[in-house]
Write a structure and sequence with these properties.
Elements: H1 13-25, H2 45-59, H3 66-73, H4 83-92, H5 100-128, H6 136-152, H7 163-179, H8 192-198, E1 206-211, H9 217-230, E2 233-236, E3 242-246, E4 250-254, H10 259-271, H11 275-280, H12 285-298, E5 303-306, H13 313-326, E6 331-335, H14 350-368, E7 372-377, H15 400-404, E8 407-412, H16 414-418, H17 430-444, E9 447-455, E10 461-468, E11 473-476
């Protein structure tokens, strides 16, 4: 009487039989479930085999019926019933084709429950008998990865939609752009010329921001991220959820710099106090007051930083989904691409690994419906050219970066390279060379170029920005023709 009750994993053999029978009677029923249902979703082993062989026959353009199936299934112990008899019974008791999808979803949902039970049991067992080198954090990450993997497999909310639905979505986007500050279809970066060219980062876009070391790509990424987070505004929908109307909630994966270093950069940008002064504490009272004011304003900004180094693309995807679910997410920034690892072993080709990473980031952008801005290093071949402006072929390690990206931006500062060309004192024609060098430096001082190397939504070209190195700040460049007339 006190023995524990034995619980059978959830299943519904009658639904499996009704579904298989409907397909055997009318093969068109298979098309209603083929998008999300797999053989492993069936609880009964024979049903798995029947569905697998049926799928193979239908995809090959052949008829799947009790007659054509029986030669592929072999012998099974069915309690005195032969396989041909069982197939004939399935066909004779078949449900109407109109119910096929409902039965398919029932089979699929029960398979999900069985998978959840399996994951739960494994979590318990591993927690009890974990090896010495296994951390609880690693187990949590693995469990979360598997849970999301189950959630994403076999989703039946996809497929074709009518053009009128897509048209309605496009019109809604245009209407929101008309209402939004700056009249942009995407999110404003705070940089007028860049917004004008791109229309702002678009939802579901993968944007690659690339440059050689020292060009300021991290500074540009943090500037854009903070501008978006600072402008965040929302409205409350009828169901109580929040909908972003301007700016956005930003997630920032800082794989190279710590959160403190990133915060110091943003404080320097906002306060106008050089970041090296903040780090050394070499500041005046007035500067400290500016820093305090900037920090107070920044506290309410919806920007979340993950400083974990060396994470995999699977971990990044899981954490981004978690942030979207718990806090909301409108823009995701990753600094930088080459510091991510794929799921493959270390012995595999790095190009293949990077292909997996960029494909995963593009899929994540579409899934979460947010722009993903990923920073990328450029190869050293840039340094070997006279004109060091980067181009698409300079993207390091993989052509998949160029292929998967919707937008590719390059950061370039002529001043960085020109500094090293200062004439040496005592050289021939020193005065002439120095004068020419000084004039060239004056022309490019404090200026940066953002080169649009690829854009699915608009033209390519070059945008000039102002760059203040001491406070790592990019801002709009005031052109002479835009300045007011002198009095």
């Amino acid at each position: 009487m006190n023995a524990p009750a034995f619980r059978v994993a959830p299943h519904n053999l009658e639904a499996e039989q009704a579904l298989l029978g409907a397909i055997l009677v009318n093969n068109d029923a298979y098309d209603r479930v083929s998008d999300f249902l797999r053989p492993e979703h069936f609880a009964e082993e024979l049903h798995r085999r029947i569905f697998e062989v049926t799928s193979q026959l239908i995809r090959a353009g052949k008829v799947a019926s009790p007659v054509t199936l029986k030669t592929f299934l072999g012998d099974h112990d069915l309690g005195g019933v032969t396989v041909p008899q069982y197939l004939a019974r399935l066909a004779s008791e078949a449900t109407a084709i109109i119910n096929t999808e409902d039965y398919g979803r029932t089979v699929y949902d029960l398979a999900l429950r069985r998978n959840l039970i399996g994951i739960g049991e494994e979590i318990v067992n591993v927690a009890y008998d974990s090896p010495v080198d296994s951390s609880p954090r690693a187990q949590i990450e693995e469990a979360e990865r598997r849970l999301y993997e189950i959630a994403e497999q076999g989703r039946y909310d996809g497929g074709f939609q009518t053009f009128s639905n897509a048209l309605t979505t496009a019109i809604d986007m245009a209407a929101k752009a008309y209402e939004r500050d700056g009249k942009l279809s995407g999110t404003s970066t705070g940089l007028i010329e860049l917004d004008r060219k791109l229309g702002g980062p678009q939802r579901s876009d993968l944007i690659i921001l690339a440059g050689r070391p020292g060009m300021g790509k991290t500074a540009l990424a943090t500037n854009i991220a903070f501008n978006i987070a600072r402008a965040h505004d929302y409205q409350i929908k009828p169901d109580g959820s929040h909908e972003t109307t301007n700016g956005g909630i930003v997630g920032f994966f800082s794989l190279e710099m710590s959160a403190e270093q990133l915060a110091t950069r943003i404080i320097a940008e906002q306060s106008g106090v050089a970041s090296y002064k903040i780090r050394r504490g070499d500041i005046q009272d007035s500067e400290f007051h500016r820093i305090s004011e900037a920090a107070r304003e920044m506290q309410a900004v919806p920007m979340y930083i993950d400083q974990t180094g060396g994470i995999s693309i699977a971990q990044l995807v899981a954490r981004a989904r978690r942030l979207k679910r718990q806090r909301g997410l409108d823009v995701l920034v990753i600094d930088y691409l080459q510091l991510l690892s794929g799921s493959k072993s270390k012995g595999d080709n790095r190009v293949q690994e990077l292909t997996e990473i960029t494909t995963g980031l593009k899929a994540l952008a579409k899934e979460l419906n947010v722009p993903v801005v990923a920073l990328s290093q450029l190869s050293r071949q840039v340094e070997n050219r006279d004109d060091k402006r980067p181009q698409l072929s300079d993207l390091r390690e993989s052509g998949s970066i160029e292929q998967d990206a919707d937008v590719v931006l390059f950061v370039y500062r002529e001043e960085y390279y020109l500094q090293s060309k200062m004439p040496k004192e005592g050289s021939e024609d020193y005065a002439v060379k120095m004068d020419a060098w000084q004039r060239a430096m004056d022309a490019v001082h404090g200026k940066a170029e953002v080169i649009i190397g690829k854009s699915r939504h608009g033209p390519t070209g070059t945008i000039e920005l102002q760059f203040e190195a001491e406070v790592t700040r990019f801002s709009n460049l005031a052109h002479e023709d835009a300045l007011p007339e002198p009095r």
